[in-house]
Design goal:
Its EC number is 4.2.1.59. Homodimer. One of its GO terms (biological process) is fatty acid biosynthetic process. Pfam families: FabA (PF07977). It catalyses: a (3R)-hydroxyacyl-[ACP] = a (2E)-enoyl-[ACP] + H2O. By secondary structure, the protein is α+β, with helices and mostly antiparallel strands. The protein has a single domain (10-167), classed as Hotdog Thioesterase (Thiol Ester Dehydrase, Chain A, Roll). The protein has 3 helices and 7 strands. Strands 1, 2, 3, 4, 5, 6 and 7 form a 7-stranded antiparallel β-sheet that branches. Strand 5 and strand 6 form a beta hairpin. The longest helix has 18 residues, at 80-97. It starts with 9 loop residues before the first helix and ends with a strand.
Length: 169
Amino acid sequence: MADYPTSFDKDDLLKCARGELFGPGNAQLPEPPMLMMDRITDISGDGGPHGKGHVVAEFDIHPDLWFFECHFPGNPIMPGCLGLDGLWQLTGFNLGWRGWQGRGYALGVGEVKLTGMVRPDRKMLTYYVDFTKAVQTRRLTMGVADGRVEADGETIYQVKDMKVALSES
C-alpha cells in the first residue's frame, strides 16, 4: 500500500486531475466541471463491508452547477450518469491511492438503480464505494465495487459490480 493520506481536499483532487498526485501516466481524476466530488473524507485498501477497500466522498450541490441549466430548462435535474461517473472516478482513485500503476478507465457496471433526483435545492451528495474485489496481477489491475450515492442523507443511486481497470498502455 502506498503512503498516501486517508482524506483529500479539493486542492488534492485538483492535483490528481493534473496528474501530480499519483504521477504521470497513472490514475487521474477529470478536471472541473467533470470532477464530481469536492473532497474524499475516508479511503482504505482493507475497509468496507467486504474488507477489500472503500471510499467515502462528498460533492457540494449549488443551484448554479453547470448541468442544471441544460438538463432540463425549467426542470433542473442532475443527470444520473454524472452520479455514476462520480462512483467510477472514486473507484479508479482508490486503485491509484493503493500505489497501483496505470491510467484508469471504466469497464462497466452490473446493475444501476436510480430512486431519487438531485435538484438545485439539495445541499450535498455523499458517495460510498465498497470494493468486493481488488486484483493486481502481471496482466490485470482492476477493482470491482458496489456503490451508492446519498443526497442529503437519502439514498438516490445504487450500483452493483462497477468495474474499473488500470492500464499502462
